[in-house]
């Protein structure tokens, strides 16, 4: 079970994966892997674009039982295989041409533990408690899918 808490409207999650730091980093930075685990179960990604470099952009479009959504951001820091920092915002009306909503920052730190990896995620600050809850649940579901991916063949 991951450790998750909120501190000043910011989510902190720590999780250990049975995979090398390089393997976990690849899952975040290789589009063909990223699309397989990003977003919780029940969400279908219909478009995924990632340009993982400082100043590069990312974008996902998808759908779930609530309708369609679009999210995007910019990579602020990329240090392979130990750190990713990027912005995150949803778009109004569930499409990429809609206005960007409240922007948060996601910081991923990867620490090698022999043949395992400790992932620490700090995401926020969130606009409200509901936004925090949605992202907490979303990351929990996504990390379950990431764990499944990492157990498979690279």
From TrEMBL:
The Activator of Hsp90 ATPase homologue 1/2-like C-terminal domain covers: 18-150
* InterPro entries for the chain: ASHA1/2-like_C (IPR013538)
Pfam families assigned to the protein according to its UniProt record, in alphabetical order: AHSA1
Superkingdom of the source?
Bacteria
Q: Which CDD domains match?
A: SRPBCC_CalC_Aha1-like (cd07814)
Name of the protein in its database record: SRPBCC domain-containing protein
Q: Which organism is it from?
A: Reyranella humidisoli
């Amino acid at each position: 079970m991951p450790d998750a808490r909120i501190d000043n409207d910011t989510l902190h999650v720590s999780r250990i994966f049975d995979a090398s730091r390089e393997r976990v980093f690849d899952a975040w930075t290789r589009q063909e892997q990223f699309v397989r685990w990003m977003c919780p179960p029940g969400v279908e990604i219909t478009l995924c674009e990632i340009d993982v470099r400082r100043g590069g952009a990312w974008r996902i479009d998808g759908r779930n039982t609530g309708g369609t959504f679009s999210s995007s951001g910019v990579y602020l820091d990329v240090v392979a295989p130990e750190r990713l920092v990027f912005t995150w915002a949803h778009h109004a009306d569930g499409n990429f041409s809609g206005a960007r909503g409240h922007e948060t920052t996601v910081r991923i730190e990867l620490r090698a533990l022999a043949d395992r990896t400790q992932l620490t995620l700090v995401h926020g600050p969130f606009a409200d408690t509901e936004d925090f809850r949605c992202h907490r649940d979303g990351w929990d579901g996504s990390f379950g899918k990431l764990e499944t991916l990492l157990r498979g063949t690279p």
